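Is glycyl-adenosine-5'-phosphate placement plausible here? Inputs below.
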Amino acid sequence: MQNEKLEKIVSLCKRRGFVYPSSEIYGGFAGVYDFGPLGVELENNLKAHWWKRMVHKRRDIVGLDSGIFMSPKIWEASGHTKSFSDPMAECKKCNTRIRVDKFLSEVGVFTDEKISEEEIGNLFEKNRKKIKCLNCGGQNFTKVRKFNLLVKSNLGDFTESNSVPTYLRGETCQGIYVNFKNVVDSTHMKLPFGIAQIGKAFRNEISPRQFLFRLREFEQMEMEYFTRPDGEMTEYEKLKDYRWKAVLSLGLKEENLRWKKHDNLVFYAKEAYDIEYNFPWGFDEMEGIHARGDYDLTEHCSGSGQDLSYQDPLTNEKFVPHIIESSGGVSRLFFAIICDAYSEDELGGEKRVYLKLKPDLAPIKAAVFPLLKNRPELVAKAGEVFDMLNEEVQPVTFDDNGNIGKRYRRQDEIGTPFCVTIDFDTLADNTVTVRDRDTGRQERIKISELVAQIKSKL
Ligand code: GAP
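Reply from A.M.:
I modeled the complex. C-alpha cells:
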C-alpha cells in the first residue's frame, strides 16, 4: 500500500511538472532531481515560510548567504575531512555499493557514527548471511570501509592531480559559524541571537534513495542560535517548541509527526531530537534540533587561530558561545508536504486525486476559465479577470482547454485552491463562480469582491 502511494506521488510529480529526474535524456544522474515549473513555486513558498518565521518574525535572528565554497581548512577544523563518513561495502557480483549501517539496521543491528571501521566490519561479518544485495541478491561483499561524504572539487587547484582539493559544502551551518564574529562586529546583535541561512549542500551519499529523501545535492535551511553557556538548554527547549509550531503551521497533520530523541549523542552534544515525518515507508527524519555546546566555535578558534569568544557587554564576562541548531532539508520538507497533501476521493460520482495543500503554499493560487473557448466575449472577459487577479495574487493560471470538469481535475491534482469561471451570466451581471478545491462547492460572487475574497483565504 505504502509503496503504491510512493509510486503515485513520484508519477504525479513528474507528470505535472513538480519534480523531474536529473539529466533524464542522458539516462539520468543518481542523487539529483530537478524541480519543474510547479516544484520551484512550492519550494520557494516553503523557503519563504521558513525565512519569515526564522528571520523576519524574530528580532533576535538575522540572515546570511555564505559561499558554497570555503577554505578547506574549515572542513578540517570541523572534523569533516576526517570523520564525515558512512560505512560502505560493494557487492562482488554486480558492484552495487551498499551503506552497511542501513543494511545492518534492517536486520536489527544498530550502530552509530562513533563506531570504528573495524567494529562495523566485524558486525557486518557476523550478520553477513542475513544481508543480500538489493540489485542481484548476491551475498558476497567486499570488506567494509568508511567512505568520506565530502564532495571534492578543483576550484582554485591547478595541480591537475587535484592534490589540493576544495570541497562543496557538506552543510550550510559552517558558513554561519565562521561568520559569527563578522555578524557581532557589523550588527547590534547581542547574545542570545541566531543566524539563519538557506542554501545548497552536497554529500557523496553512497546510496541516494527514496525519491527526494536522500540526495547528493540538496538544500538546507539552518539556523544556529548562539547562547551563554548557562542559557543553552533553556533556549534549546524554546527552539524545539518554536520549530514544532512552525512545522504544524505548514498544515502537516499532527498524527504524521513525532519527536525522536537521539540515543547515541556525539561527545560534545548535550541533547538532540529529530522531528520525524511519517513518509510512505514509515517515520523518518525531517529536521533536527540539536544542542551542540561550544564545540563548533572552539574548533574554529583552534583551526583559525582567531579569538571567537564573546564579551558580555553588561558583565564583561568572556566566553565561547554555545550553539543550538535547527537544521532541515528543503527537499525532505517538500516531499513530506506532498505526501501529506496527496488525497483521493469521489466528487460528483467521479474518482479524483487532489493535493490538499494549504492555500498559501499552493504553487498556483487560482485558475481562471472562460466557460467556452470559442466565444470571444467570454475569453476577453476571462482575460480581464485574469489580469486583475494576477496583479494582486500571484501566480494565477489561465485555462481554456477541454470541458470545465477536466479543467477542475487538472487544477485539483496540482493543489490550486480556487477556480474562477466566467460564463454568460458574468457578461450580464459581473459575477463569477468560485469553486473550492477541497469541497467542490461553488459560490457566485461579484468580480469587484474577487480579489479580497481570495486574498482573505491565502
Ligand atoms: N548541520 C547539521 C546537519 O547538517 P544533518 O542531520 O546531517 O545535520 C540536517 O542534516 C537535515 O538536512 C536533515 O534533517 C535533512 O532534512 C537534510 N538532509 C541531510 N542529508 C540529506 C540528504 N542526503 N538529502 C536530502 N536532505 C538531507
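Short version: Residues 37-56 form the longest helix (20 residues).
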